[in-house]
Amino acid sequence: MQWQETLARQATWTRENSPHLRLSSSEAVDLYTNAPLHTLMQAAHHRRMVMHPTGYVTYLVDRNINYTNVCTINCQFCSFYRPPNHAETYTQTFEQISQRITELEAIGGTRILMQGGVNPELPFSWYTDLIRLLRKMHPSIDLDCFSPIEIEGIAEVSGKSTLDVLILLKDAGMHGLPGGGAEMLVDNVRKDVSPKKGSPANWLRVMQEAQSIGLTTSATNVFGFGETLSDRVEHMSKIRELQDHSLSHYGKAFTSFIAWPVQLEVNTFGKRNRGGSCYRASKRNGK
Ligand code: SF4
Question: Which class would CATH give 59-284?
Fold first, then answer.
């Protein structure tokens, strides 16, 4: 009966008493495991209406631009990348990228999310020149570019710290970072599916650095790798910890959280075909 008590407590939530009603990890796992989906949806809707009683909803029109598919990280779930020198690699020219933004402007868009592979062939000046040009040619478009793993790759190629890379990209006119590359911020899951991607702590550190200098950031979550429900809650807990820290220290933190299932297609992970079966096994075992 634990989950009913948890939801009853949460139903009393207000902004004033919210510090006393933080969900613990064990409560979250219990809700995830035992509460019926529609009951959870009702609770979520109730919370939303308490937080935003007008029901006012906003949206924006943006465009994803994948400027290069060259990548050295080899994540097993990725169907997009090609290793350097592969016959199917591409890197878009500045003109091609600008043209895509012109098409976005034509339909009233206001932001791009530009992400690609970790491409060791591009010097640091390629990134700063690109951002400066886009800022000049498309002054009304927000430029959210380069996820934390790309920032790490740029830092490695340029010999700069990730913080310095972020500062220089911001100086060039970049507004923020997309939230890509978080996937599952749990060490053993990450080591299994993307061992070269760097630790969860790195993703969180780069995001914290971005937030500390006022860049816009968003958080993501990919699930279905065979992780346990506790792993999923650990991921959300790490995002929440950084959110708390950055709001209290910088007054700025993640502006959105987006989750989606891993795509078991023509990638190494799909061939292993472990996602669904492992998740079901872990649920059966009560994890
Ligand atoms: S870092 Fe990104 S582009 Fe590279 S393999 Fe991983 S998911 Fe694909």
Answer: alpha beta
Q: What is the pLDDT of residues 119-167, one digit of tens each?
A: 999 999 999 999 999 999 999 999 999 999 999 999 999 999 999 999 9
pTM: 0.92
* Ligand 1 atom nearest 78 alpha carbon: 8
Domain range annotation of the chain: 1-58, 59-284
Mapped onto helix, strand or coil, the DSSP state of residue 179 is coil
Taken in order 25, 29, 35, 41, is the CA torsion positive or negative? positive
- β-sheet bridge partners, residue 70: 82
Ligand 1 contacts CB of residue 279 (under 6 A): no
User: Quick check: 22 and 64 in contact, CB under 8 A?
Assistant: no
> pLDDT, tens digit, for every residue of 63-103?
999 999 999 999 989 999 999 999 999 999 999 999 999 99
